[in-house]
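Lecture notes, unit on binding sites. The following record was shown on slide 14. It pairs a sequence with zinc ion.
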Amino acid sequence: MRVRLGVLLLVGAMALGACGTEGEDPADGRTKVVAAFYPLFEAAQRVGGAHVQVTNVTPAGGEPHDIELSSRQLDRIEDAAVVLYFGHGFQPGLEKVAARAKGTKVDLLSEAGTLLGAPPGDQELDVDPHVWLDPTLFKGMVTKVATALSRVDPANQGAYEANAAAYGRELDDLDSAYRQGLAQCDRKVIVTSHAAFGYLARRYGLGQEAVAGLQPDAEPTPQRLAELASQVRAQGTRTIFYETLVSPKVAQTLAREAGVSTAALDPLEGLSDDALNAGATYISVMRENLATLRSALGCR
Ligand SMILES: [Zn+2]
């Protein structure tokens, strides 16, 4: 935990530009890994442990969709031994830099399994990138991280495989909790802020209606809002979900219009400094999400 916190503080300092030691390398013989955004960062930390130095290029509390990269981050990506990122235009700027990086590059989205297409009308993305919200797909990504680290640093292959297996068991437990927790519910449709929960919905037999599309910053038209409000009333939805990293305004407007309540459902695209300092992890946030879903959907 102390090591992890140290790395997080270091990443935070770099994000603020407070670290004036350009060119100095704090990796100390550890394998340098760049992760495109939070879930990939956590996967690399858990699998790599003390053998890796992981940089998350999406700052804590930032939105990973279409981030802007600093020149320092560009250097880090180009020099990293392993670059973990998502293709398919999820972070186009990062994807372009990753293509010319010297190290091993792993497009964890393209290798994640059967991908969902973009909803009709979504013009910026050809597939739904939010695979990490399905614990089973995320576990597959963790295994691929172990394979990549083992290839680059074969001396520590045993540790990478053991760490991935241990983390994989925690993800299996999470999957069981979701299966059991969502098996018997009064309602099956979730209304979310942006369409981040498609893979989670597919895995656990839920339906998803999103206010925005696959990109969180897309503004819905008044017609779309009115259509959603009448849908919400017709299907007896009780809760509109908003996110912590984007404004809850539209979700609140919809909830008011439909006469229902709101609750936070975290798509884990990034965790704030406060959440990280409080010890939040992929698994802890996913468990909070499960509790929120169970209460909103009337599960027994
Ligand atoms: Zn998203």
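Take-home: The domain at 184-297 is CATH 3.40.50.1980 (Rossmann fold).
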